Amino acid sequence: MGNFQSLTGFQGDVVLNVAFILLILIGGLGFTVLDDLLEKRCWQKLTLHSKIVLVVNAILIVLGTVLIWLLEHHNEATIGAVGVGQQWLASLFQSVSLRTAGFNTMDLASLTHATLFFMMGMMFVGASPTSTGGGIKTTTFAVLLASTFALLRDKKDVVMFRRRIDSSIISKSLAVFLLAISWMTMAVFLLLVLDDKQHPFEFVLFEVFSAMGTVGMGIGITPEWNAWCKLVLIMTMFIGRIGILTFGMSFFNKKVDKLRYPTENVMIG
Length: 269
Description:
It is a single chain. The protein is mainly alpha-helical. It contains eleven helices and two strands. It has helices at residues 2-8, 14-29, 31-40, 48-72, 84-97, 113-125, 138-152, 167-194, 201-212, 227-242, 244-249, and strands spanning 159-160, 163-164. A hairpin with a 2-residue loop joins β1 (159-160) and β2.
């Protein structure tokens, strides 16, 4: 419990906690959304991008707060030893911080495995485009979900807020997801091979997710890694910050296809 108190420092100051949460939220929304909000100040007039960002952020924050509280409110090593109000405030702070800021008000090493796993998912989604955070981005996550549901319902078009999503956007979202998963899989494998102290697998996995999301949240094993492990982590943070799609496209020359081949069906699933 001492770790919880020492890390927060301002756990009893609700105003300060809320101020930090608001700053983190603003930093994670993206400059285009902030500009859209300041200019239009009306939900109906907002762009589709802004609506998706705001809705997805709200859902992830609420979902994260509730799940973290449910998973940790009995754990005295994290938030179980404080009052219910402080438990909810700490859960909210952690939920907001997970996808961009990297501040932790709990002892991460004392979290349950279920909480760590959920946090990895939140860090993987990350913040929003043109923001200060990393990850695959909230819009990518939303487009992937919407396209999956449209496919399950056998719908021709992917529609969000009465607007059709272009097929090129869906293709890019899928590419971002696959490239991110591929790089992180390789990074985890390299770290497991190069790690001379053999840290727990879930800790290594957590560090990679945190690096890819440029969250900066660590369990404390990074200082113990050798130079090669740190180099892998540096590359992961670099890729997470500039964007996996941008990084991947930098290795290929853009060419206009002058030839179109005939189509043929392939069985999927």
